[in-house]
Amino acid sequence: MSTRTGLRTHSCGELRASDVGSEVKLCGWVHRLRDHKGVLFADLRDRHGFTQVVFRPEDGGDLHQVGESLRPEDVVQIRGEVEKRPDGKINPKLPTGEVELRAKQVVILNRSETPPFEVRDSLSVSQELRLKHRYLDIRNPAVMEKFEFRHRLAHDLRQRLHGEGFLEIETPFLTKSTPEGARDYLVPSRVAPGSFYALPQSPQLFKQILMVSGVDRYFQFVRCFRDEDLRADRQPEFTQVDLEMSFVEEDDVIGLVEVVVAGAVGSALGIEIPTPFPRILYSRAMEKYGSDCPDLRFGMEICDITDLAAESPFQVFRNVAESGGKIKGISAPGAAGSLSRKEIDSLIPFATEAGAKGLAWAKVEKDGLTGPVAKHFPAEAGQALRERMGAEPGDLLLFVADEETVAAQALGALRVEMAKRLDMIPKKTFRFAWVTEFPLFEKDSEGRISARHHPFTAPAVEDLAILEERPLDVRARAYDLVLNGAEVGGGSIRIHARDVQKRVFATLGIDEAMAQEKFGFLLDALSYGAPPHGGIALGFDRLVTQCLELASIREVIAFPKTTAATCPLTGAPAGVEDVQLEELGLARTGPAPGQRG
Ligand code: ASP
Predict the structure, then answer these.
(1) In this predicted model, what pLDDT tens digit does every residue of 449-486 receive, in sequence order?
(2) How far from 205 is each of 46, 176, 198, 386, CA to CA, in Å?
(3) Which is nearest to 96 in space by CA: 53, 138, 145, 34?
(4) Which atom of ligand 1 is nearest to the CA of 535?
(5) How many whole angstroms from 240 Cα to the centroid of ligand 1?
(6) Cβ atoms of 556 and 550 closer than 8 Å
(7) pTM for this entry
(8) Centroid of ligand 1 to alpha carbon of 220 (angstroms)
(9) For residue 458, what are the domain limits?
(10) Where residue 67 sits, what CATH number does that domain have?
């Protein structure tokens, strides 16, 4: 790769001992300056690395003056001669560390104001400030390298999909709403006042229609838009690697995707990722890990102790068991000694946030249990509990007694928290898994039946007969891809028969007229020889975040939004002129932004 241009002969990461004696031109930003008894040193930075530039007093006063005038983040062109660094001054950590550039001429391409933070320290300043001056933040090699990784992974995935016969096809952004469970971003139409486009929550329907078109294998790196409350792993716009295949069953999609993903992630990280990925039934994931995104980097699985608890004299446990609830627990290895009472109490919110009423605990000692619950499990009962939970002396037992899912989810949250506190999560370990056999439907917060993935997911063939009578028992032909406890993909075999699609709409309370109005174009397409098909979308930002073991997807998005869905760099979202609203046939109901209060 050559970075040579009219302004430079080399990049700042390129010069080596073999270049000593040559005359070169470099361009870059002033990173750091040092004055060593009148000899000036400047580290010049660009995306490719650093080169040390030296200004020697004997090379002329004018040159020296320019050198002295340099400030961090000035962007300059420097012509000079490559010299070997004196012995003892070699920097083995830097690829260019054997040489320095002896400046002969400096052209200031552009001066910089004093930056609001030092580029090399950008990771330690506030999120708001980093995003406001994102151009400075990205100059930090520790930030830039994430985008280089992202690029490499994207490039590799693309090549592998291309190798598997996928066509990359773009689908529209100005479209009709596709239900993926979030609110739509709407775009008003000027030519049809009062009408709106919706930005796609995913290209779901277009990719299905491409299968009806005979495209056979489609993929796209595509931006999706969802207006929902933001968390560390959510952004209003995010990138999916969206794909769809015709004439497939679950194993075809799963088998192809895991080979592509393991290959690309493995090569981007320089490690081997074994395939096939383990598959876990949704019901088992909930039972053992209290989550549909289990983190398999550590054990501490959840145990059901309802039968043992029902026999204990502990009224709280007995009541829950008698009313059909469950008592479940985890055994945190070695935590009995290392966690103080106060620290154990600080775990309570993890249980209550998941909806549990409380948290019970006991410590395992050599000769029995201690702690608040211990007296209810004396001698043999304690021993039985210990055996069931595979606990050793020194372990801390945590229990939640509640309705089954609440108990599982609370312990799922505690399991992850304890693993963090006990340092049980190994670094640089990447554990993928498929979660399968999800329920097709769930009840939403208002008790209505809604699609767990989206309404185009096919029901298990054997469950078609109970679709209307027992919808909540119908299994979906869906699969999620999980990496280290995060959902990094989700997909399914789709409904390709018009009548089944209509039955699913009806179960969701979407009547004929509404189905026709909203999804008539899909139903029409399904009536013209739609092939069996299925696919998946990988959450690309999340995949990169997990690979780099980062805490937030904002770190791998060049211009992300804050948790308030704002962009500190541009100030979006922002007000618009009244005339723009008039053109769109819109009227304000309140004061314009900025005129409030
Ligand atoms: N459209 C789905 C989503 O965005 C993915 C899929 O089913 O392929 O989650």
Answers:
(1) 999 999 999 999 999 999 999 999 999 999 999 999 99
(2) 43, 10, 13, 52
(3) 53
(4) 8
(5) 9
(6) yes
(7) 0.95
(8) 12
(9) 145-280+433-556
(10) 2.40.50.140
